[in-house]
Amino acid sequence: MFMQEINFTTQDILQKEFKEKRMGTAYDPTDVDSFLDLVIKDYEMFNREISQLRAENEQLSGKVDDLTRQVNARQSVQSNVETSTSQANNSVTNMDILKRLSNLERHVFGSQLDNGANNQKGQDTFSAGSQSGWND
């Protein structure tokens, strides 16, 4: 579309030769005027095209800015979700570790812990009994 409406290239303008109307070096004013009219039309068309492209560029830049903001917002939300998920997974993992440690302690030290607790209860009972006068 753009290139089909252009009447001249820069080379055409540079190589344009005007006819001499009379003897001497003067050019035919109507020939020069018609050529300049075509050049002016080209420049007007260039200016319209430039204005249209600038407006389109501004519109597309606005869309890019909007999409960039949307992407950044989604990345922020996704990052927050990942952080929350990671923290939840860490707390579950920590809880699992504590449960496993407790079970392991019961398994390894269970008999010693039970004996220690029973011995302590027996000593408490004995102390309470001797104070109440049972041994008297």
UniProtKB/TrEMBL annotation:
Coiled-coil parts of chain: 36-70
InterPro entries: Cell_cycle_GpsB, DivIVA_domain, DivIVA_fam
GO cellular component, one term: cytoplasm
Pfam families linked to this entry: DivIVA
Location of region: Disordered: 73-92, 112-136
Location(s) in or outside the cell: Cytoplasm
Top-rank lineage group of the source organism: Bacteria
GO BP, one annotated term: cell division
Keywords assigned by UniProt, alphabetized: Cell cycle, Cell division, Cell shape, Coiled coil, Cytoplasm
Family matches, as NCBIfam families: DivI1A_domain (TIGR03544), PRK14127.1 (NF010725)
Protein name: Cell cycle protein GpsB
Species the sequence originates in: Furfurilactobacillus rossiae DSM 15814
